[in-house]
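Input (Type III restriction/modification enzyme restriction subunit):
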Amino acid sequence: MIHGSTDTSEKGFQRLITRELQELHGYVASTSNEFDREFCLNTGQLLQFIEATQPITFQEIQKKGERIFLARLDSKIKEKGIIETLRRGVKFFDRTITLFYPQPNSSYNRKDQAKYEANIFSVTEELIYADNNKNRLDLVIFINGLPIITMELKNAFTQQAVKNAIRQYIKDRSAKDKLFHFARCMVHFAADTDEVYMSTTINGTNNFLPFNKGLNDGSPHPPFGAGNPAPKDKLKTWYLWHEVLAKSSLANIIEKFAQLVVEVDPKTKKSKKKLIFPRYHQLTVVRKLLVDAKEKGVGQRYLIQHSAGSGKSNSITWLAHQLVSLYDKTNTQPLFDCVVVVTDRTVLDKQIKTNIKSFSHVKKVVEAITGSAKDIKELDPTETSFSKTTHMRLALANNKKLMICTVQTFPFVLNAVQDMQEKRVAIIIDEAHSSQSGQAAASLNALFASNQLAELPKDEEGAISTEDLLNYLIQSRKMLANASYFAFTATPKNKTLETFGIPQEYTDENGEVHKKYIPFHTYSMKQAIDEEFILDVLEKYTTYQSYYKI
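Output:
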C-alpha cells in the first residue's frame, strides 16, 4: 500500500511523488508540451521568472529577441554546466541575468528572502525530451524553467526494482540527447519504493551510486548495512521527495554542495571534468553538524565515524566551506571566525583548495600554515619572527577564514588559538592516516622534546599513531573553550570516543550504571561493504584447521 493509496503501479508511485511535491513543497506542475526540446528548458517558466524578478531586463530580452537570449543561455550551460549557470547567471549584452536566487543565511534579510521565494520549482511527468524518439522520462524537476534533476521510477510491488531503472538509464538514454549532455542536469535518480541510486553522468556505463540512508540511518546502533529502514506509514524512499527535494534543500545543494570540478591526471597531465553531487549520508552529516553547532554554539566536540568508501574528503570540504559562513542562532553574526582543517593528506589539501575555489571568487581563500618567511611576509611585511605559531597568529589576525595544517603543525595552531581567546575557531580533524612513521615520527619526537612533552608510544616499526597523538595534544590543552572540534575517523579507538564522542549512561545486567561514548554520525563498515565500496576481507576467510578439513 502506497501511503494511503491502493494504486501499486509504477504510475501510482509517480503520481504520489508529484502530488506530494505540490502539496508539501509548493511545486508547480507542468506538462511535456511546455518543454522546448531545442533549448532544453521550459521557456514559459523561465521568462515568467525573469519578468517577475528583473522587469527591466525582461524588456531588454523582448527588445533584443527571445531567441538570441535562449541561444546565449544554451551556450553558457554547454560551456559551464547547469550549476555554474544557476549560481552566476548569464551575460546578455551589457546585463547579467540572474537565473536563481539562493536562500539568504539570515532570516532578517527580507529583501533577499523575497527574491528566493520568487524562484519557480516545478515538476513534469512523462517528459518527451527529444525529437528523434518518443522516449519519456517519469519525472523531471525544474528551477525557473531549467531542468536540474531527472528521475526513472519503478515500483517494488510490481517487481520492477531500482536496478531496472538503472538499466533503463544505461541502455535507453543517450548522451547524444541534449538533456543528458554532461552537466546539463545536476543529477539523475533511479528509484523504487525501497531504494534510490544516483548518477551525475549518463553515458552508457553504470556510474550509479547508492543514495540510501543505511539501515541504521546514521545512528551508532544496529542494524547496520545497505538499504533503508522501514518507517511507519511511509515508503522506505519517502526521504527523497519529503526531504531532499524540498525547496530549501535543493537551493542549499545548488549553492553549497553540487559542483563541477576539473581533475588533472598527475601522470598524463590530461584534465577531465567531474560533476559532484553528495550521497545521502554526506548531505545529512554536514547538515546535522551545522544545525547542532548553530544551536549549541562554540566549544562542542563531534565524532564522525565514516568508513572507507564514504567519500570522507568531500564531506570534510563541504563542512569546512559551510562552517565558514555559518551564523549563530541569533542569525546576526558568524559563529566561527575561522575554520582549521588538520590533515596529512596532500590529496585532501588540494581537494579543499579546488572545491572552495569553485564556491568563491576571492583569491587565496585557503591559507596553508607553513611557518615559511614568504607566507608570513604576505600577511605582515614587517614581521621578523618566522614560526608556525606566528603564521597561525597572523592568519587569525588577518581574518583568514579557512586554514589547513599538518598533524605536525597542529601543536602550534593550538598555541595560537589558546593565546587568542577572542577568536572562535572550528577545528576539523582528518584521521585518514593511522600512523606517523620515519621522518615524520622523528620530527614529532623532536617537537615533543623541545616542548617538554611526553614521548608517545610507538609500534614495532617506530610509528606513532596519529589518533594517539591528536588525543594527547587536545587533552593536554584541556579542550579549548573558544574552539569546536569535528573529528572524522573510520575506526575510532576508545580514547578517541572518550575525547570526541557523546556520553551515554547505561545499566548492565547487574544493575550497575556505566558511561559509554558514541559517535555523532555513523556510516558503517558493513554499509560500505554491502554497497561495494570496500571489500569484505572475511568473505573468503577460512581458518587453518578448516582449510585442511576441506
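The longest strand covers residues 121-128.
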